[in-house]
Amino acid sequence: MSDAPQDSTPPSSSGVEAIPGETVPDAVAVRSGEAPASRTFWATLNSPFGAGFLLTLGGLAALLLGLAISNIATVLIYIALAMFAALGLDPVLKWIERRKVKRPWAIVIVFFTFGVILIGLLWLVVPTLIEQITAFVTSLPGTISSFQQTDFFHWLEGIFGDGLGTLVTDLQTFITNPANIAAISGGLLRVGAGIATAISGGLIVVVLTLYFVASLPSIKVALTQFAPARNRVKVREMTNQITDSVGSYLMGMVVLAFFNSIVAFLLHLFLGLPFPLLMGVLAFVITIIPLVGPVLYWIFGTVLALFTSPVAALVFGLAYLVYIQIEAYVITPRVMSKAISIPGSLVVIGALIGGTLLGLLGALIAVPVTASILLIIKQVFIPRQDAKV
What we know:
Blueprint: H1 24-31, H2 48-71, H3 73-97, H4 103-148, H5 151-160, H6 162-176, H7 178-185, H8 188-224, H9 232-270, H10 276-287, H11 293-306, H12 310-335, H13 344-387
Helix pairs in contact: 3-4, 3-8, 3-9, 4-6, 5-6, 9-10, 9-12, 9-13, 10-11, 11-12
């Protein structure tokens, strides 16, 4: 008989001896070279006060992060606008680079050209534009009075009743009342501050655009490095497709808005409608909104022309409607040939959501963002779903 002490640890079912003080599954995992099964957070939670304190700190950190983002929302808008401006200028830079011009010199040429054009437009347009705005404001009461004497107004009054005349009279009284004009002019200080803020913001956007344009290739490379090495080729191709299509889309929107402004200016000039230059500038600003911009200006321009001449308003409405159709079926497909095509319903939905969130900037960038999401879905998500049998 041997007096050696007997090991009371029961053997495991797998034939591996358990380590004293450990459970059999953990011992099996250690002997086999595997890590013990991890325990959940809630299973090892033995300090409710400490867990609650950590969760509260996490909530406060999220709240502070949200407040910080809301406080720098203006800066984020500047960054987004500058990035989209850089993407819009990138196709022009690539076109110049294909003419054996290095990128730094191409940037100098593009910015110098845009600077000369902007200074020329300001020198030629701003004085006349200010004169026409002043004339428009001062002549508005007389225009309303003249409109009330037309047969067209009497025809409308016969349809809508005396309430239409009362509404127009109240509008004229409000405009011609010096007290209301003084109340409106009381906000001139705020208007001046807003103009100064817009000018400073524009300078910031120009500087950021210059930096983004100069460093756009390196930015693409840096973003590609976040992807795994096996996927970088595909990610690089998708990045180039997205940036090229966004740049083509933004340049196309500017070109289409410029065509709309020229057509609006010529129609107002030839039909004898007042303030053709002002209406051309308004047409550019409004029609740069994707898809719905030309329709909005068509309604606005036609209604405004009614105060001058119903016949001229009818001719303007029909002529501009014909141009909208030509633009939709002839000009837009050629200008947007290199941009990503997306359904019209998604264009409207994206423009409405973007406009609600970020105003004109949101409406402008919502469409290329939507197109980029569709491209990712088509090239990443759908192939993965097709591979599942």
